[in-house]
Design brief:
Blueprint (H helix, E strand, L loop, with lengths): L1 H30 L12 H13 L8 H30 L4 H4 L5 H27 L14 H30 L26 H26 L6 H10 L13 H10 L24 H9 L5 H5 L1 H4 L6 H20 L9 H5 L2 H6 L5 H5 L6 H15 L5 H13 L10 H6 L3
The structure holds iron/sulfur cluster (2 copies).
The site of one iron/sulfur cluster has 15 residues, from helix 12, helix 16 and helix 17.
Length: 433
């Protein structure tokens, strides 16, 4: 029986690792579909500081204290509970039972009790998050882009986590009752699951063994499914948030980078030395994800769909169609679509990011205020993508609104958005004729 169970475990573990590896390979290939023209100006010391404070420390989350604490409870639980998963995996492969205890780990019961404490924190946080999402009327969870799969995804993962946590407590409580029998190796008391002991006390030994084993299998199969599921869901940020924050840029938020090829053209017109290593691009701006940088695509896979960006976006607040969260979701969905096409060897699908996913109305509604960038706890920059899409409309399609064209014309000729000639620039604000 032990051997069959070990073989089943090793097969499930191997299958899960293969599926997760293939999924990460798919995502990595998709990210690299982006252009290589992104470089972060951030020095290594600042990147490591960002990694510690923003990624591990979640410092940007603390602008909103309640969700930050709940998120921290789940996050720390996720890390601490993983230590117990190491024990479960070793038990599954070697056919042992609580190997750390068998090997004589000191204070084993305290170690398990600490894990149980975090298990309780995770359950409490998940229940509160479910209430916040589904019962409380919080605007950022009601946006149109969350309809369907995104809201189901958010709920599923919370329910999933609650089931996994209940399985740990049931496994430990039934194990504690089993330890009251002579033949069982003692671990010492587990402080939190011991409260559940009365629920199991009346079962005979064989039933208790079944309960303990079923809870063990539910927990570990749940962990495998969870790990696979995460790679298909918004919870990918658990992993990709780290490289995304590490590679993020520390430039002043108001700064919009010039397009090197256009700078070259202007230098040429002014008779200045041009940089001949910069090629003229096939397309100005971004029509599809292959016109974006790899960092833009990494950001789309790192987005947690929290909606903090959308909640502070002035056009969204005033009822316009633009939502920076949707921009990130669209980039990720289109990237996935292109990735699947590549795997199916479909070369051309007659679709594009701009037009089929993101409308011109959304792109033009952005005020470039950077509020979304400032707000994002994962240092994601939706504005960068919006600017590239807008550049596409301006430079490739010449389809900006006529008022905008007049304004741009004025900037070119008068150095201001207004139609006044440059030598009369000071007159108009003094109200002189
Ligand atoms: S930069 Fe654009 S998308 Fe971001 S908050 Fe401002 S208006 Fe909204
Ligand atoms: S871009 Fe950032 S703030 Fe906006 S939904 Fe994604 S993770 Fe949240």
């Amino acid at each position: 029986m032990h051997i069959i169970s070990q073989l089943c475990f090793i097969t499930l573990l191997t299958l899960s690792v293969i599926i997760i590896y293939r999924r990460f390979k798919f995502i990595n290939r998709n990210i690299l579909l982006g252009k290589k023209n992104y470089s972060s100006n951030t020095d290594k010391k600042t990147r490591i500081k960002n990694l510690i404070l923003i990624a591990f420390g979640q410092s940007k989350m603390f602008k909103k204290i309640v969700p930050a604490i709940l998120h921290l409870m789940i996050y720390s639980g996720f890390i601490i509970i993983n230590v117990e998963i190491i024990e479960i995996i070793l038990d599954g492969i070697l056919g042992t039972h609580r190997i750390f205890n068998v090997l004589g780990m000191p204070f084993y019961n305290v170690f398990i009790s600490i894990i149980e404490f975090f298990v309780l924190l995770v359950i409490i946080s998940c229940v509160i998050f479910l209430i916040r999402r589904n019962i409380l009327n919080i605007k950022r969870f009601k946006s149109i882009e969350l309809k369907g799969w995104p809201i189901l995804d958010a709920n599923l993962i919370l329910i999933f986590e609650i089931i996994l946590m209940i399985a740990i407590l049931s496994m430990n409580a039934s194990d504690l009752v089993l330890q009251d029998f002579e033949s069982y190796k003692k671990t010492g008391n587990f402080y939190f699951s011991s409260v559940l002991k009365p629920l199991f006390i009346n079962f005979d030994i064989q039933t208790l063994i079944y309960i303990e084993r079923i809870a063990w299998w539910i927990h570990i199969i749940g962990i495998f499914l969870f790990a696979i599921y995460v790679t298909y869901s918004k919870h990918l940020h658990i992993f990709l948030g780290f490289p995304n924050i590490y590679h993020s840029n520390e430039e002043n938020l108001g700064k919009i980078n010039n397009m090197p090829s256009i700078t070259n053209e202007i230098k040429d017109m002014l008779g200045e030395k041009v940089n001949e290593t910069i090629p003229t691009p096939d397309r100005f701006g971004a029509k599809d994800i292959t016109d974006l940088s790899w960092k833009n695509i990494l950001e789309s896979y790192s987005c947690s769909e929290c909606g903090r960006c959308t909640a502070v976006c002035p056009p969204n607040i005033t009822g316009k169609k633009l939502s920076p969260r949707k921009i990130m979701m669209d980039v990720r969905d289109r990237t996935d679509e292109i990735g699947i096409n590549i795997d199916k060897k479909i070369k051309y699908d007659d679709r594009s990011l701009v037009g089929d996913y993101i409308s011109k109305e959304e792109i033009l509604a952005c005020t470039s205020c950077n509020a979304c960038v400032e707000e994002c706890p994962l240092k994601i920059n939706p504005l960068d993508i919006i600017i590239e899409c807008r550049r596409y409309y301006a430079l490739e399609e010449s389809s900006l609104p006529s008022e905008w064209n007049a304004m741009l014309q004025n900037i070119e000729t008068n150095y201001s958005p207004w139609k006044f000639p440059i030598d009369e620039r000071s007159k108009w604000y003094k109200n002189e004729d």
